[in-house]
Write a structure and sequence with these properties.
This protein is an alpha/beta fold. Helices cover 33% and strands 24% of the residues.
Length: 144
């Protein structure tokens, strides 16, 4: 059964995304990161100079096939045809991914913006209707 984790209240999507990629790679899995062109450029730069590891191996979806075959992390604006279905899908896009059925794990990253949260609620409903296992992680800072 597919598990979908919603991380709500992300303040710095790039830093948060790098931390998630480190965890995914440490587990032995691959990652597919979906987002808009601006976010993907920022993730590309951050993954090249990751503070914790120095470098996280990755490729943009339009890289040559030989590079894609050796890259455990793929950055794309939509799910590429033939992308590995065993990769953890990390979704920054704010939309339901086009090929999510059949994936074991999806991580939805959502900012604290009310519009983003409302869109995430709609994705939650869609995943729930499909019978996926859903987990909510509210990462917003707590008032002390």
């Amino acid at each position: 059964m597919t598990q979908v984790d919603f991380h709500i209240g992300i303040e710095d999507p790039v830093a948060y995304g790098c931390r998630l990629v480190r965890k995914v790679l440490a587990s032995g899995a691959r990652a597919l990161i979906l987002g808009d062109a601006n976010l993907l450029r920022r993730m590309d730069v951050a993954l090249w100079a990751d503070e914790a590891s120095g470098f996280l191996p990755h490729a943009m979806a339009d890289a040559p096939a030989a590079v894609l075959a050796r890259s455990p992390v793929l950055l794309a604006d939509k799910v590429p045809k033939g992308s590995p279905s065993d990769a953890v899908l990390i979704n920054f896009s704010g939309q339901l991914p086009d090929d999510h059925p059949g994936r074991e794990r999806i991580i939805e990253l959502v900012s604290a913006d009310e519009r983003a949260i409302q869109a995430a609620r709609e994705r939650w409903k869609s995943y729930k209707q499909q019978g996926f296992s859903l987990v909510n992680h509210d990462v917003r800072p707590r008032a002390q």
